Amino acid sequence: MPVQGVVVPVNAGDLTIRAQAEDVHVINRKRLRRYLLGLPTVLPPDAISTVFAAARLSSTWST
Question: N or C: which end of the chain has fewer CB within 10 A?
Answer without folding.
Answer: C
